[in-house]
Amino acid sequence: MIEFTFWDIVRNLLLAARWTVLLSLAAFVGGGVVGMVVLFFRISENKWSRRIASGYIALFQGTPLLMQLFLMFFGLPMLGLRIEPWTAAVLGLTFFASAYLAEIWRSGVDALPRGQWDAGASLGLHYLQELRLIILPQAFSITRAPTVGFLVQLIKSTALTSIIGFEELVRTSNAINNATFEPFKVYGLVALIFFVMCFPLTQYARTLERRAAH
Amino acid sequence: MAFAWLPGAAGDIARGAVTTVLLIVVTTLAGTFLSILGAAGRRNGPVLLKRAIGIYVEVMRNTPFLVQLFFIFFGLPSLGIRLDPVLAAILAMTLNMAAYTIEIVGAGLDAVPVGQTEAALALGLRPRQVFIKIVLPQALKVIYPALTSQIVIMMLESAVVSQIAVRELTYEADMLQARTFRSFETYLVVTLVYLVLSMALRRLLVTGGRRVLGAGVS
């Protein structure tokens, strides 16, 4: 029987938290890239691309993330891909994030007055130039607060990847708890670590919101 | 893909779905009630209560639901509070949802013009009557769409309580796939059940809200 001191527990949890941070960043970046593609479909002038994108978003916002992770974890091997918890976690969270980010940014695009498009067109810009130079910069800038808010949600969502076996903060804490039988202390510390990661971002999102309101 | 197991599993899936629905119904009622108290306390209560509610909201909003659930189910027994899985799940879901809806209800209370309160007081209503009969109904009408979204989000989040062996939809899926060895198909079917549940729940809340509150929800 190994004895765990308080600092052993804290050290192990902090080491595991690195994976939570890494997973959050990977999913945020991946979700941003895929989310851009979904956004293009969502605001396209073609009715069918818009419908497909809306369906994609509704699918991910209408089912539990846990189910999405399970489908990733058990589904990809059926396509002949060897998959590990890390891959399933990153891919699952990437698609999850892409749906939410696309919807957030779409609200930004919709909020811009029609005149922005018209002005771009009258300057002789074609569709992609309009998007790149006029529409998207403004849409991103007015949706910065909800985007940061979603990052907080994403960090919290990484906890679910423990269930498909990815060794992040929560899975490590389960293992430590099984060895120490101190759930109050262990899960309290895990909550504290998540809080330290999320709270500054929440505050930042609030600052952005207040700045946008003025 | 093979779905030969499906007819024999329909009963289990239906039972799980009923439990999921029951969990969210209880959570919605308890969570809304708690958030009305919380939002009122945060506005009119003593300073200490205001600060406590503020801390509670921040802590719940900045930690994962799964960790809250584990803390309540595994952690609280060391303080002598031992809950069975269903109670722990309902408690965790209610506390989690209330943290979000306290802010929503609060925003609704702020949206009701002060003149409404003044007029009601001038008519001789007591402060409690003013809150229950005048301010609260108007506030609920304003926030109803946001409340609806939060309820649907909580329903989807409730999949996690399978981890403490509450026999809801996800738990039944876990059991089924262990029996049938058809993991992907099982989770696919159950995911679709969740999709139907969340769409039906939203529809029900929207039509119900329109009828009861006259809230303009689309």
UniProtKB/TrEMBL annotation, chain A:
CDD domains: TM_PBP2. GO terms for biological process: amino acid transport. Belongs to the binding-protein-dependent transport system permease family. HisMQ subfamily. This is Polar amino acid transport system permease protein. PANTHER family: BLR6398 PROTEIN, MEMBRANE COMPONENT OF AMINO ACID ABC TRANSPORTER. The keyword tRNA-binding does not apply. It is found in: Cell inner membrane; Cell membrane. InterPro entries: AA_ABC_transptr_permease_3TM (IPR010065), ArtM/GltK/GlnP/TcyL/YhdX-like (IPR043429), MetI-like (IPR000515), MetI-like_sf (IPR035906). Keywords: Cell membrane, Membrane, Transmembrane, Transmembrane helix, Transport. It comes from the Bacteria. GO terms for cellular component: ATP-binding cassette (ABC) transporter complex. GO terms for molecular function: transmembrane transporter activity. The keyword Transmembrane helix applies. Residues 17-205 form the ABC transmembrane type-1 domain.
Automatic annotation (TrEMBL), chain B:
The chain crosses the membrane at residues 20-41, 62-81, 87-109, 186-205. Gene3D superfamilies: MetI-like. One of its GO terms (biological process) is amino acid transport. It is found in: Cell inner membrane; Cell membrane. It comes from Mesorhizobium sangaii. One of its GO terms (cellular component) is ATP-binding cassette (ABC) transporter complex. It is a multi-pass membrane protein. The keyword Isomerase does not apply. Keywords: Cell membrane, Membrane, Transmembrane, Transmembrane helix, Transport. Residues 17-205 form the ABC transmembrane type-1 domain. GO terms for molecular function: transmembrane transporter activity. Belongs to the binding-protein-dependent transport system permease family. HisMQ subfamily. CDD domains: TM_PBP2. This is Polar amino acid transport system permease protein. PANTHER family: ABC TRANSPORTER PERMEASE PROTEIN, MEMBRANE COMPONENT OF AMINO ACID ABC TRANSPORTER.
